[in-house]
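Format notes (please read before filing issues)

Several people have asked whether sequences and C-alpha cells are stored in separate files. They are not. Every record keeps both together, in the order shown below: the sequence lines, then the C-alpha cell lines. Line labels are part of the format and must not be stripped during preprocessing.
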Amino acid sequence: MKRLLLRLFVGATIVSAGTATAADLNNGPAPLVRWSGCYAGGAAGLGAGYTSWRDVSTPGDIDAKGAFNTANSDMSGAVFGAQTGCDYQYASSWVFGISGMAARSDIAATNQDQFNATWTFRNRVDWLATIAGRWGYAIDRSLLYIRGGAAWDSNRLEIEARGFNLGTPLTTRLGWTAGAGMEWAFAPRLSAFLEFNYYNFGTQNIGFIGNPAANRPFIIGSYQTVETFQVGVNYSFWSL
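Then the structure lines:
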C-alpha cells in the first residue's frame, strides 16, 4: 500500500506538471501568480499505516512463547478533512508558509496475532491533525513544495482473546510529519493540489484491562506510522 501511494503521488505530479506546461504552450504566457496570502480548503484521499504490538509489562501476552517478539498490523482506508494556512512569497519565486490540517479517517485493520493464534487485533485511526510549515518554489501558476511539522492522531486499539474483549483503549498520539506536494492556481482565488505525507508517532505504552476474572491488566508497547496521498482544493480569502 505504501508503494502504491508513492507511485500515485509521483505519477499524478508528473501528469499535472505536463498538463500545466502544455496549457502554457497552447495559451501563451499566463499572468504571474502571487502566493502570498491566506487560504482555506478541503482534501480527500487514501491512507495506509503500520502498527506494532509488543509485550511490556509481562511476557506471554502478545508473544505466547514469552520471547518478546513483535506482532504487527497493516492498515488501510480513506481520509478526508480541511486545512487552512498562510504563505509568504519572497526573493521572486520562493514561498514559505504555515498551515493547520484536521482530517477524519477510517484507516484500520483487523488481523490475527502472529505469535498468539488465540488473539485478534483491531486497530483504527479515527482522525489526524497537523501544524506544519511548508517551503517551496513557484513556477508561474505552479508551486512545488516540501512540508514538515507536528502531528497528532486518535488511535483506538482492541484485543480479543477467544471471543473475550481484553480492552479497547483510545489514545492520542503525538509525532511528526514530513511530505511533499504540488499546487496549481487554476483561477484567481482557487488552486488544486496533490500531496503525500508520512506520519511517525513513535512508540507508546498502552494499558489493557485484560481478563477481569484473572485480575491481570497488562501493558503493550505500540509503534505506529501512517502515510497518506490526498487531492484537494484551496480558496484564497486574503492576498498580499
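For reference, the curators noted about this record: Helices lie at 2-27. DSSP finds one helix and nine strands in the chain.
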